[in-house]
Amino acid sequence: MKRIVIILCLWLLQNVWAQPPKVLVVNAHPDDESGCAATIYKITHELGGVVDLVVITNGEAGYKYSLLAENIYKQPLTREAIGRKYLPRIRKKELRAGCNWVGIRDIIHFNQLDTHYTLDADTVLTAVWDVENIRKKLIKRIQKEQYDYLFCLLPTEETHGHHKAATILALETVQMLPQNRPIVLGVSVSGKEDTLIKTFKGLEKYTITSLRKNPTSSFQVDRTTSFGYKNRLNYQIVVNWLIAEHKSQGTMQTYMNQGDFENFWYFDLNTPERKKKTADFFDKLSRATLVK
Fold first, then answer.
1. What's the pTM?
2. Does residue 278 belong to any structural domain of this protein?
3. Domain residues for 146?
4. In 10 A of CB 134, how many CB atoms?
5. Candidate from 31-40, 127-136, 187-196 with smallest mean pLDDT
6. Number of domains present in the structure of the chain
7. Residue 194 belongs to a domain with what CATH number?
8. pLDDT of the residue at 12
9. Enclosing H/E stretch for 188
10. How far is the C-alpha of 129 from the C-alpha of 291, rounded, in Å?
C-alpha cells in the first residue's frame, strides 16, 4: 500500500502539480520567431506554458522586401530612408499580431540597429550593438522570470551575422549567471528530405557555441503532425498564419514556412544531466494535443 501511495504521489508531481514550462526566445529580428512557431504554439496552447520574446533589433534593414506592403502602409517603404524610418513601428505592430496568435505573452524590444545583411557576427558585436547593455537587460529579465528554457537560432556558418550575434550574446549571458540557468537550445528548421545539417559543432571562433558533445539535433517538433476533424489540420498552418502577419517582409512567404521539423540542439554550455529533463519536456510536447 505504501509503495502505491509513493508511486501515485510521484505521478501527481510529474503530471498534475508540475509547473508549466517557462521559455524565453532571444532573436535578432522581428519574424525570427517563425523558426519555432509550432513549438511556441504547442507550449502555450497545449502545455499551458509561458513564452516571452526578446527582439534585439527592429528589422529596419528589411526595407528591400517591402514592395508588396507599400499599398498596405501607404508609404514607399523600399526607399531606404523611408523604410528605415517607418519599418520599426510597422514591424513591431506585425510582430505583436503574430505573437498574439501563437500565444507569446510579452515582447521585449532592445531597439538596436539593424544595419544590413552580413555573415559577420564580429562587427555587430564590436561596433553596432550596445553589447553590455543587452547583457545587463537579459540578465535582469532571466533572473526575474526564472525561465526553464531559452531558445535562440542555431548559429551555423551560413546564418545571418545578426542571428549569430544574438545567439552568442544569449549564451554568454546565461554562462554569466551564477545559478538557476535556463537550458539553452539552438533552433533550426529542416524538411523530411533535408540533409544539409547533419552535424554542427559550433562556431570555431566562438567556443561558447560549442555542440561538440551534441553535434546532431537532439529534439524535434513535427510541423506535419495532423489533428482536428479528419486530421485535416497540422502545425504548418500555425506557422503560415504567423508568417502572414509579417506583411512588410514579402519573401518570408516563399521560404520561412518551408520545413517539416523544428529542431532543437543542446549546447555544451548546458550540463549533461539536464538533457533528461529536456527530453521529458519534448516528450510531453509530442504527446500534447489541442483540447476543444
1. 0.92
2. yes
3. 22-285
4. 22
5. 187-196
6. 1
7. 3.40.50.10320
8. 47
9. strand 183-190
10. 43
